[in-house]
User: Which sequence fits this backbone?
């Protein structure tokens, strides 16, 4: 059993500690922002500004890459997903003296779908639909569809927004093997 004096001392020390804490809180509110920033560590300042590892918002560009193949003359084209393709999302920004494109890359999954997370300095741009483009940068070696440097898609559309996440859709990107597409187009011309 605890002596009464020991319990009284414990209660008094808690009361003194809480009053010191409250008085230090009221003093802190009187500090200037410069003094507060001097008291915070760099990591705390970065987190408060929203540039830390804990992202305040996310902007994603999503889409699907498919390969259309004509397996036999006269047959309907067959569509396959392209897994393992490297997709780039480039967004143009106006600097003070130059205009440059910032690129971020992603890879398609087994269903040909990709989702690229844009860097935080592009999140506030209200013109993402006009300034960003999607390009197939590299096709997997086993794919018969080759990337074309002119294969650029500019039709981004805002598909969802909420919970600090904006998702832009690039839609379905399609490619065709040159040899197969020439063969299929010759068949289609014969039918016409």
Assistant:
């Amino acid at each position: 059993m605890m002596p009464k004096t020991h319990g009284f001392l414990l209660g008094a020390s808690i009361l003194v500690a809480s009053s010191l804490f409250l008085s230090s809180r009221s003093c802190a509110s009187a500090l200037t922002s410069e003094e507060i920033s001097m008291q915070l560590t760099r990591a705390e300042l970065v987190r408060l500004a929203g540039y830390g590892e804990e992202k305040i918002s996310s902007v994603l560009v999503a889409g699907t890459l498919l390969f259309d193949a004509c397996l036999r003359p006269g047959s309907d084209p067959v569509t396959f997903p392209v897994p393992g393709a490297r997709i780039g999302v480039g967004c143009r920004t106006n600097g003070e003296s130059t205009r440059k494109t910032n690129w971020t890359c992603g890879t398609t999954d087994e269903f040909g779908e990709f989702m690229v997370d844009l860097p935080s300095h592009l999140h506030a741009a209200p013109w993402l639909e006009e300034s960003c483009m999607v390009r197939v940068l590299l096709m997997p070696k086993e794919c018969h569809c080759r990337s074309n440097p002119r294969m650029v898609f500019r039709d981004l559309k805002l598909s969802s927004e909420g919970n600090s996440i904006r998702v832009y859709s690039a839609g379905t990107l399609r490619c065709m093997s040159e040899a197969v597409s020439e063969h299929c187009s010759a068949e289609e011309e014969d039918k016409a």
Q: What stands out?
A: The chain has a mean pLDDT of 72.
